[in-house]
Here is the input.
Amino acid sequence: MTTTLPQAATKEALLDVHHIKKYFPIKGGIFRRTIGHLKAVDDVSFSVYKGETLGIVGESGSGKSTLGRVILKLMDPTEGEIYFNGNEISKLKQREVRPYRRDMQMVFQDPFGSLNSKMSVAELIEEPLVVQTSLSKQERKHKAIEIMEKVGLRADDRMKYPHEFSGGQRQRISIARALIIHPQFVICDEPVSALDVSIQAQVLNLMKDLQDDLSLTYLFIAHDLSVVKHISDRIAVMYLGRIVEIAPKKALYDNALHPYTQGLLASIPVIETEETGTKREKVRITGDLPSPVSPPSGCPFRTRCPMAHERCSVDRPELTMVGDDEHYVACHLYT
Amino acid sequence: MNQVPLLSVHDLKTYFYLEQNRIAKAVDGVSFTVSPGETVAIVGESGSGKSITALSIMKLIEKPGKIVEGSIHLEEKVISSLSSKQMTKLRGNEIAMVFQEPMTALNPVYTVGNQITEMIRKHRKLDKKQAQIEAINLLKIVGISRAEDVVNDYPHQLSGGMRQRVMIAMAISCNPKLLIADEPTTALDVTIQAQILDLMVEMKERYHMALLLITHDLGIVSEYADRVVVMYGGQVVEEAPTKQLLRTTKHPYTKGLLESLPNLKEDVDRLGTIKGTVPPAYALPNGCRFYDRCPLAMEKCKEANPELYQVNTSHTVRCYLHEKEEIE
Here is the structure.
């Protein structure tokens, strides 16, 4: 079977991910030998085009966060290649990665855990400049104030500490920290999921504005489909370490092909203002996520899939383009 | 609904007495009712007082918190004046509660079966063996297929969704009249959330319970609640039947919340936002608590906090903009 990579000749890829695998060994027995592997990311390929936002959506255990960390080289992949601006970075040593870190930054979910509570806002925001550049103190301060204003923080708050800020403001600090060295590419891992909806909207709007302003490319990882849909141009759906569907957002929402994507969409409670009286019957995904240590043979979703047939337990479906418009799905129903 | 309410909360005030003589007015004069068989949602963001309201009904407020005023009735019983012993009997038996994080609500050192049978035997006259059979039966009712095995499992051996099913099994074990669910699915994935919410509705119908659902998710409210109570800054700011509230939203805060939600159906370039953040419960403004964040704030909003105005038989709103719409 041939693997078709979601690529378009006309668009320029900033990031290319080829057959990435990340397995974590499971140690056991008295000699702590490896007795199995947790397949967090299991053969994932995709591209991110310059200037777009690719959303990666999945539930817990889908491997979406591990994927983000592997791309940023916070972890080494078990297998596969990562190309950034055409350069292979997956085999580089940590020291050699540093120049690329200028162009790739990350915003994490938890604005508590990811900000050192002993550092002032100024120190936090200027830290990437200290590591990556040889700017003078005065220049760093100048740049910090500039970026603080851009993300909606008051420059007067420079000397405050993270605990003095609300969750939304702390996330602005994280964003300022990521953007101060002018990266091309930002990986956002659940950046708004710890925030209340009214604050979430503020941060999402800010991220969109910054993207237009600074021509950023985003990889936006989240579990909330409505948030992912709002911010993304294309969306990849992950399940048990694999991408099961990837498409432009409109195609994905109007015409979801994979039974998992369909079930995921049906699970989201939506606001209905019409007095229909009858509750619409929804297709629910039954059961729990199988263990990523011993995933099902064949299609990873077959144990919960209402459409599963014999072939699904034998053959693993590969991502294949269905129709046009760059809509790819890994499901035997379409091959 | 003209029936006698099952639960009625009147002018509830729960304050927390903090250091430096600060008083956090977490719940500050909340009134609402729940009719038999009804699903009422209390919706609000963090700090709105919705969870403290639920805990106050269960009388689970601990120091430095205190219920300082108000009455809570369950049918003809005045819960607010029950002794802690009487309350223990009532909890589980007549009101049960399901929490957000089942791992903290379940005891990690006892099996699931131990915990359910303990609950059953506290409230019903069954011997150990009968209670065990009943526990397995309850686990089957809440959709656990390997109930005979799961009954011997410890909580950590179960997934989040399974744990929440166990919590629901415990909650329904004594056939309560009211089930209070405080963010029951917030810690769960969306596909599991749908399973658990469907299960709660099924149980509600099967056991003729009323459901008080505490949530921050307006999507859940829309799909599951008959009536909505919107809370902000420890007070009710709007209350109406669900569809009415979503269609003819009155309070600027409720409007702001709805507009800030990313919508699956329509594509908008920018989301609506509510400026600023929720004021802390120990430093609430004198006037309307939403004054600082309100796009329509007027001079008098700063002066005094508006009352809840009854704008039609089932819709109340705490906002001067709707003062004139009040009916007698």
Remarks:
- Residues 95-175 of chain B form one domain.
- The longest strand of chain B covers residues 23-34.
- Chain B has a mean pLDDT of 92.
